[in-house]
Amino acid sequence: MAQKFPEDFIFGGATAAYQVEGATQEDGRGPCVWDAYMNRPGSRFNADPASDFYHQYKQDLQLAHDFNINGIRISLSWTRILPEGEGKVNPAGIDYYNKLIDECIRQGVEPFVTLHHFDTPLKYFQNGHWLNRELIDKFVDYARICFEAFGDRVTKWATFNEPWSIAQNGYLAGNFPPNETFQIAKAIQIEHNLMVAHARALNLYKSMNLPGKIGIVHTLEGKVPIMDTPENQHARDLDDAISNRFMLDACYLGKYSDTTMELIHEILQKNNGELITEAQDFVDFAKAAEQIDFLGMNYYSSHFLQAYEGESQVVNNSTGEKGTSVFCLKGIGARVSNPEVPTTDWDWPIYPEGMYMQLKRIARDYPNYKEIFISENGMGYKDDFEDGKIDDTPRIEYVTKHLEAILKAIAEGVNVGGYYIWSLMDVLSWSNGYNKRYGLFYVDYTDQKRYPKKSAYWYKAMSQRRELLPVEEIAY
Ligand code: BGP
């Protein structure tokens, strides 16, 4: 008999405020970093109206309900709640999220709420962003307001979405604001500061005796040596340390292990940088590591590492033109293509083994973890729309392989409580715009109509039967 997903497994869909809401100027919302960035001269796209979730949320939650989706990741827009980032609360912002959360519950779609999904208030971004430690306290103040307003009903909270993407994309690859490249020391400092903000918000939540659970969402990229030489393995370890291990240690060990710090110091030394920490940070880490309820794991892809001695160089593929990416970091390694592994049009290797490896690795290296949710996984694809139909079989195949990896890890004892496909409906992609689609529901951006893709019917049948289904079984 085919392996079943656990009884209470969540088949969810993921979104993020900035990528779906639109309405960036409505009802008193203040500016965040991405508003200024997306509206810069020469920008190819912006966030209005995105998927118009601000107005269409009832329709989207009805669809989620009808397609047997029992969980949704949403995030809160900091500047909808606090237009200035601090100070006066905007009642319209609180009102919107109250209505949204209530509607989720009414439709039986449990909300998994992230406090920060990349959209830092503009003012703080301009004032040093996460390099400025003052932002840590501002974040905790904002978190308190959210916990007080929504904590009676929200049962899953995440402090941050993908701290690594904030650091890597903004300060190494240069495809997120502030578009800096190769600032390796800054990236590591930002990771640390974000871990402090995470720990303090989590500890605050735990002191408030609210009924829900709290964790963090990390993107865990698989790292594999392209050929098994000691030099390539070391490049793998270095890339893994900066991308994954450094922050997992903070969240689950409550400190950075000696081996982790050796790797981080090696990277810093080769890039003439230093890491600044305060003694209290580690007190907060230790307390949070004891209390963290779950890890949200986003997984899309893995990197194949080759030893590299040269200067840093990065070329981002943000148009979907296959084979155009370059990613080499000084003191770390080169991410090279593996001819045996297929890629998406955006050069992301499709490598479900990497997901399995990361799940096992959490269970092995951080045995105090309680539960893991796959908080994002999915395939960016240029969907063909024909007479209201979208046959996205490649997406179904991609997701199938990843769900197989999850089932394998579950069978071997890893506690995975749910899967949130990225994305519920088509959304704005941060650096790729609107032609890179991920949704179960197609969005016609001209009139905001939704069309269930073949994958939506497949996902529904799977969620009903709690087992993987061959794509051929879906009549569409
Ligand atoms: C994750 C983010 C999401 C989402 C996804 C897909 O890193 O948490 O917000 O955008 O990646 O990425 P992209 O849109 O760049 O393809």
TrEMBL record:
Question: Hey, which pathway is this one from?
Answer: Carbohydrate metabolism; lactose degradation; D-galactose 6-phosphate and beta-D-glucose from lactose 6-phosphate: step 1/1
For this record, an example GO cellular component is: cytosol
Q: Which InterPro entries match?
A: 6P-beta-galactosidase, GH, GH_1_N_CS, Glyco_hydro_1, Glyco_hydro_1_AS
One GO MF annotation is:
6-phospho-beta-galactosidase activity
Q: Which reaction does it catalyse?
A: a 6-phospho-beta-D-galactoside + H2O = D-galactose 6-phosphate + an alcohol
Give the family, as the similarity comment puts it: Belongs to the glycosyl hydrolase 1 family.
Q: What is this protein called?
A: 6-phospho-beta-galactosidase
Species, as recorded: Selenomonas ruminantium
